[in-house]
């Protein structure tokens, strides 16, 4: 039996835009994801989150689901546009009331609420004023964080300011595959800084409004490995880990922006005034102020080799180790590499001295639906969860201060640009009828939660 600490959080995670639907209900304003998904060609099939899992109306059922599973924690995000429909200004009480009822319902069910304030759905009104590239948006975020934590601060256990600022930065503003769909390196760099700055500004306000809670931020930290020890391959790894991981981790832990990546970003002269021209005195200290925990979203490994070599033999700069089948890769095309979770946790705990860690997301996309017996036999997801939880357990054994695990996701849901094609849930959702069926992986995970551990497979 791999036994976890008694007070370990066994949770599931979701995000507002991916599950709530009701995109115009009760005074909600338009977000950049509403705008983006309503723009032809931006998401697979033109899918939108207009209805999603209709969680906005079905949240009592969804709490019951978690209760049935035996989870003791739930991470969800708040839609900024339900609280402040235009980003700033008067608070929409109906929006606050929705989340207040949800939090009360969770507590009544014995489930600790963990709130993500920003899971990518910026009010469109703020985007119209420049979005995260504009420093004012960081100030608006603080007003929003204040309004939410004044209302929920007496009941929330965990506050996560931002979810995966790297994805909001690079996918939203460089590749453009996420909202707001911008492709501008200089804007992306400013966005990254304002996201981090808003975290630093909001943290003391959250502490003040919610003194019994813990405050942190969630980063996506996957495992990047060089294909060989050659200087060129090691450099390929550095170039990937740099912008995705160190660009965010280093400033949060007092090291400033990594100089090598500053140089890389300006290699083509995209920043005539210097890469860090948007950084003002005091910003770096604000960003580096200590928090209670770091949230980690971990999914996969990428093995990198030098671009020059890849071009020479006309193969991609990533290496595929072993067979490319569903036992080794999920349907997202992400390699399954549980050891990367162990290594990531160790890196954070020992290299960055993070005081406390939560795995705020980890999970797998497999399309399995109900079989003839009406059950969802998603055995590959069970293996994925078991292997990753075992890696988390091993990390605890070597002294990593890991305090909880939130699987992604409670429900199949709207997977951003992939629409409804990728199913990450431990609960299957019929998008026509909104019926939910707990998958076998959900049963397995719920048992582990109730027993505080599981037998190694
Ligand atoms: C993460 C996101 C989450 C979900 C998973 C699969 O990057 O935070 O919303 O889309 O990936």
Brief summary:
The protein is α/β, with parallel strands linked by helices. Helices cover 41% and strands 15% of the residues. It has a single domain, classed as TIM Barrel (Alpha-Beta Barrel), CATH 3.20.20.
List descriptors.
457 residues, alpha/beta, three-stranded mixed sheet, globular, binds beta-D-fucopyranose
How would you characterize the overall build of this protein?
The chain is 41% helix and 15% strand. It contains 16 helices and 15 strands. The protein has helices spanning 16-19, 32-37, 55-69, 80-83, 93-108, 124-128, 135-152, 165-173, 185-209, 231-252, 259-265, 283-288, 307-312, 338-351, 379-397, 440-451; strands at residues 2-3, 9-13, 73-77, 112-118, 158-163, 214-220, 223-226, 293-297, 301-304, 318-319, 357-361, 402-408, 427-429, 436-438, 453-454. The strands form four sheets. Strands 2-3-4-5-6-8-11-12 form an eight-stranded parallel barrel, surrounded by six helices. Residues 15, 18, 163-164, 167, 220, 297, 361, 408, 415-416, 424 line the site of beta-D-fucopyranose (FCB).
